[in-house]
Model the fold of this input.
Amino acid sequence: MLEGLMAEIGRIVILTGAGISAESGIDTFRSAGGLWEQHRVEDVATPEGFARNPNLVLNFYDMRRAALANVAPNPAHSALARLEREFSGELLLVTQNVDDLHERGGSARVLHMHGELKSALCTACEMRSPWHTTMIDRPPCPVCRAPTLRPDVVWFGEMPYEMGRIYRALETCDLFVSIGTSGAVYPAAGFVQEARANGARTLELNLEPSEGSRCFHETRHGPASVLVPQWVEEVLDA
Ligand code: BV8
Done:
């Protein structure tokens, strides 16, 4: 369906979710045995949960941050980095993921709308700093020295980052591609409707039908490590 259209594609917005990192060995949220089966969302991914039990939350993110050392980007991450290098039009890569696999796969411009494991947010001075170790020991904020760091991750009930920039890109893109996300969480799950409302073509690459599949012009089902390199080849050969 998209074959003939590829040549007219000048602006692409891509949204990725946990599924693009699954083959790298990072648990998704909603699969069997996934992150949310091991922990209640309300306990580890809300401001209320953090206020109630900060050690549980700091440890949850310390473990996930440490686990990044044991995983590597997969061909899907590398293919998106190739697209960034070789695509002659405009590309915005938005990820819901807090891992660093897009960057380690070679993508230089990544918009982490839900924050990053390798960033710390100080609740005293509100400054963000790169962070690679643990927070359970209440280390001092690199800026104001107060022992008030939290994971720089957007929890439920908090506003995702750079929403204005994302909506402006959705209003002007020719193609919106959703990769490896269940379409379960808003506002990200609503991006496909925003793109369609502005006349963009929409494509979903996912292991199985997502909650939003019916909103896409085209859906392809399979592992991201196979579908994403194939699709990038199509775009660059157009
Ligand atoms: C906000 C960071 C407002 C933390 C995350 C409208 C309707 C209903 C509810 C709401 C609404 N608007 C807002 C809400 C509330 C809420 C929400 O959406 N709740 C849901 C549960 C109904 N949203 C929010 O609270 C958001 N904030 O709206 O603020 C506001 C307004 C004014 C002022 C202040 C605030 C914030 C949401 C962000 C929460 N943080 N993550 C962390 O990582 O620990 S959410 C987390 O789940 C992820 O970041 C991601 O965004 C989300 C969805 O996860 P996925 O990435 O899709 O992963 P999942 O496991 O679900 O699916 C994986 C998919 O991959 C599957 O489809 C699978 O088939 C596929 N897959 C698996 N393997 C592969 C594969 N695909 C390809 N290849 C493979 N190999």
In short: The CA atoms of residues 62 and 133 lie 7 Å apart. The mean pLDDT is 95. The longest helix spans residues 54-67.
